[in-house]
Amino acid sequence: EPEVTQTPSHQVTQMGQEVILRCVPISNHLYFYWYRQILGQKVEFLVSFYNNEISEKSEIFDDQFSVERPDGSNFTLKIRSTKLEDSAMYFCASSEGRTSYEQYFGPGTRLTVT
Amino acid sequence: AQTVTQSQPEMSVQEAETVTLSCTYDTSESDYYLFWYKQPPSRQMILVIRQEAYKQQNATENRFSVNFQKAAKSFSLKISDSQLGDAAMYFCAPHFGNEKLTFGTGTRLTIIP
Question: How far apart are the first and last CA of chain A?
Answer without folding.
Answer: 37
